[in-house]
């Protein structure tokens, strides 16, 4: 547990100036490819195409987004048998509106609706 919590504010200065443009472009590219969205108790899971280029873009996004938005938790899940790819953005109480404010404009129209609550089976 940490003593200090960072504010819900993106600090783009945490990303090297020469990487910022590419990071903003990767956000648009990644979230425009979202096929559906699921609300989680502490954030959202976004279904992405099971494509190598999308996986690389997701990894690039996570590697830089964690610097400017340290209050996000990230999870990248790839289902077996070439199933769905899910990128989850999570955080503490209050993070959901921030997530949608930051990436909502990039989501395809159909992805604004929730696909339902995500359930986990073991």
Topology (elements, then pairings):
Layout: H1 17-32, E1 36-40, E2 43-48, H2 52-68, E3 73-78, E4 85-90, H3 95-103
Antiparallel strand pairs: 1-2, 2-4, 3-4
Helix pairs in contact: 1-2
Short descriptors:
alpha+beta; 3 helices; disordered C terminus; four-stranded antiparallel β-sheet; Gyrase A, domain 2; single chain; 122 residues
Describe this structure in words.
It is a single chain. The protein has one domain (19-104): 2-Layer Sandwich (Gyrase A, domain 2). The chain has a four-stranded antiparallel sheet, with helices on one face. Mean pLDDT is 87; it is low at 117-122. The protein is globular and about 40 Å long. It has helices at residues 17-32, 52-68, 95-103, and strands at residues 36-40, 43-48, 73-78, 85-90. The protein is an alpha+beta fold. Helix content is 34%, strand content 19%.
Shape: globular
Helix content: 25-40%
Mind telling me the C-alpha Rg? 14 Å
Main sheet makeup: 4 strands, antiparallel
Mean pLDDT: 87
Task: Write down the domain tally.
Answer: 1
CATH class: Alpha Beta
- What would CATH call the architecture? 2-Layer Sandwich
- What string gives the helices and strands in order? HEEHEEH
Q: What is the rounded distance between the termini? A: 27 Å
Instruction: Please report which band the strand proportion falls in: under 5%, 5-15%, 15-25%, 25-35%, 35-45% or over 45%.
Output: 15-25%
Helix count, DSSP H or I runs of 4 or more residues: 3
Show unreliable segments.
Answer: 117-122
């Amino acid at each position: 547990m940490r003593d200090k919590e960072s504010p819900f504010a993106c600090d783009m200065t945490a990303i090297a100036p020469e990487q910022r443009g590419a990071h903003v472009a990767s956000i648009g590219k990644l979230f425009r490819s979202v096929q559906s969205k699921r609300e989680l108790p502490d954030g959202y899971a976004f279904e992405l195409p099971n494509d190598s280029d999308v996986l690389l873009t997701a990894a690039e996004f996570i590697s830089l987004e964690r610097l400017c938005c340290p209050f996000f938790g990230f999870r990248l899940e790839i289902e077996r048998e070439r199933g769905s790819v899910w990128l989850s953005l999570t955080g503490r109480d209050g993070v959901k509106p921030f997530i949608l404010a930051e990436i909502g404009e990039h989501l395809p129209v159909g992805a604004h609706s929730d696909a339902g609550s995500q359930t986990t089976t073991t």
